[in-house]
Protein 1
Amino acid sequence: MAIEVRIPTILRQYTDGQKAVEGTGDTLAELFADLETRHAGIRARLIDADAGGELRRFVNVYLNDEDVRFLDGVNSKVADGDNVTILPAVAGGMA
């Protein structure tokens, strides 16, 4: 069994159009590194290397419907059967 990662439309160019992919790892950081081995470029869209390897500011990640920023961020533990959802933050308003 693996961890299911739901991919938003804007990042599907890295997953050959797939809406969901599977990966492995003990933490989100390890999971994202594993995804990078099969979907080159996706990790750089999620992780900010200049911010010590933390999530990019405008990327929201949910682990089993829990916002990982309120857990342990990229160090949040994951296990087989977990679901990870990646959502880009949306901003806008009236000009």
Protein 2
Amino acid sequence: MRNLYLFLVVLSILFSCTQKKETQPNFIVFIADDAAWNDSAPYGNNIIKTPNINKLAEDGVVFDNAFLTTSSCSPSRCSILTGRYPHSTGAPELHMPLPTNQLLFAGELQKAGYYTALAGKYHIGVKREEFNMIYGGGPSGCENWMKAIQERPKDKPFFMWLAAMDPHRKYQPNTIPEPHNPANVMVPPFLPDADSTRKDLALYYDEISRLDNYLGQVMAELKTQGVDENTLVIYMTDNGRPFPRCKTRMYDSGIKTPFIVRWPEKLQKGRTDALISSIDIAPTFCELAGAGISETFQGVSFAPILEDYSANTRDYIVGEHNWHDYQSHERAIRNHKYLYIRNAFPELNASPPADAVGSLTYQEMIKMYKEEGLNKNQFDCFVEPRVAEELYDVINDPYQFNNLAGNPDYKNALNEMRGLLDDWIVKYEDKVPANPTPDKFDRWNGKKLIN
């Protein structure tokens, strides 16, 4: 009788563990490299060919106010994976390796029984044990996404970080069978509508379409494996497009991200204007997985929004601009109404990253600048010195062209946003570096400097 009792206890424990694994959701993050938030049909661009991203939106939840903590490749990825602001990760600047003592949420998922894998662009430093497998892949960065999905153990829930290199520069023609026509691209008003800009944007579109194709293959494989319904999928980017006034910038063109969440078992199609930050992914996944939510996480779970699309989990987001090819220190705080930016080094201009400096678009802009052919909305990168503070009404000024910081009618709003940022700086122990990293590239021609 005693043996029968012990057998039933063990059987009950095994059954409960099995049930837990069956109900734990799988997670996939598809992350683009340098893609604008609004370069797909769900966000208003019907020209670019992204049928699979569009299908995610048709089946899932589109977030209209999702933001990154920085508009810079490796710091953004380190921030997402640790759930911490860039200056708190120990890797706030481009190409800085993430310190090994920084906790990754992938490790917390492992403790909860998850298999974890990364395929594509790594870019956070030394290889980490929090990923059971790490796959490379190039030139798209997506080449081993299917391999990662197919080789996973089938008896565990999984987390996949599928990281493209698309649409990072440099661009090559004919990356997709039917390239985009430059005549059809959508040129944002902060870039000149010139032939060179259109050609550049068309090549950029092509790489997003290549990424989209790989994404579609993975989604089809999930259905083949029978795990589609209980897999929570996110499509997002690490920073804005590699064009002037985008990548590295604190405007929506730099830190806003596409954010589409699909989870057929739990979510119906919908849309939300709730504010979320990329550091919110870590606590959200851990909560949904039944894993531990580390005290190191600085984000807040957006799981309540997945229950109620009208819910809100935060009042504002904060972005950082630290060294990325050039000396810099900017902080931005944004809510539903205003964007406030503070610049510690206003004497410096806002040149785009070195890879974009050599682009068709920026070289055309330099030519037009010398010929006085740019309009006031396209002049931004050449302003020197800049103002130390910027304030924008993001509802009435979606591109953030009209700085209201000096307008007396917005004095109260300015002071409110200043106060919010000051409180954040104290809470998260943020500081302007006493010895900032200097420029490593020429701000006009992008050539490496000899220091």
